[in-house]
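Holo prediction — guanosine-5'-diphosphate-alpha-D-mannose.
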Amino acid sequence: MKAIILVGGQGTRMHPLTDHLPKNIVPLCGVPFLTYQIEQLKKAGIQEIVFSLGYRPHDIQKVYGDGRRLKVKIHYAIEKEPLGTGGAVKNAESFVKGHPVVVLNGDILTDIPLKKMIAFHKESQNTATLGLVRVEDPTAYGLVLLDRRSQITRFLEKPTPEEAVTDTINAGVYVFEPGVFDLIPKGQNYSSERGLFPGLLAAKARFGGFVWRGYWQDIGTPRKYLTTHWDVLNGAFKIPMKFKALKNKVHIGKGVRIGKGAILQGPAILEDGCVVGEGARILPCAVLGKGCKVGEGSVVSKSVLWEGVQVGEGVQLEEVILGRRCLVPSHSRLSPGSVLGDDSQL
Ligand code: GDD
Ligand code: MG
């Protein structure tokens, strides 16, 4: 089987982080996000993947090329104008023609067992199967109602609080039979959630839901992006860490320098070349990208600093996200929840 990953959204909810980087390749614990999805597809035996995209395609091509480095084959279906979640699937059709396909929204992190989901799809003889998860607040997602035989009876994208009659939502993981492509208009902006799925229901197609009760997160807002880091660092989502771990769960890259009296408390990550000043404290859920510098006496906790961030002396950073090469002067204040784009200077 082959897969299509939708990576064309402009990431507006992630602004300003996504002004210079598509959200699908923002670093998660030092690794471009899509790599996790590629690894998940590989685990299910899928080695040929189409990235369907339009926004900053070269940034993504620069990271993944033809996929050889990750031992997969990657194709790029590039759209001139955003085609929407359905149009983007259609635009990738020529690479997967005639075969069933797995489709992933390119901004979700989940351990949904794809092999089991594909087996369920086949056993149920579905035309389309959606992966489903349960969340506390379904209003930001596509709400799904199922009957007793796991067939979908209703799909409602972004319901109002009154309409939210279930907590089961579309996880952004699909298995489609080839016939699904015939239901999507070509070359038009078309939404799977507002067009294709209601259309499958209207046509009384076999349209099933595979409920997953494991880990699931959409990383598409700064808050969720931050809390996903905490989940990974706390072990709720398992990844092979690429940096060596000290015994207090501090993962350290090469050439990291730690000043006298500095305290490191895990779980935390300090990538290659980070410098921690005297008496500074790197506290749980701090992630410091390559070459970050934290000045004397400064404290970093529950924050994500992309590469090259320079923090002066006596600064407290808690629950902030700082883009590449941000400069935070000594003794300045940033309130929790702050998000600064690349190259910001306070
Ligand atoms: N190629 C392409 N072109 N990709 C697109 C486009 C487009 O025009 N628009 C969105 N995408 C990609 C995004 O990059 C993302 O990976 C995926 O499609 C979903 O788009 P989002 O903008 O993140 O949608 P959402 O999070 O509001 O809602 C979707 O995901 C939820 C689960 O996270 C819907 O599918 C919901 O039903 C679902 O619950
Ligand atoms: Mg999303």
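READOUT: The chain has two domains: 2-227, 246-340.
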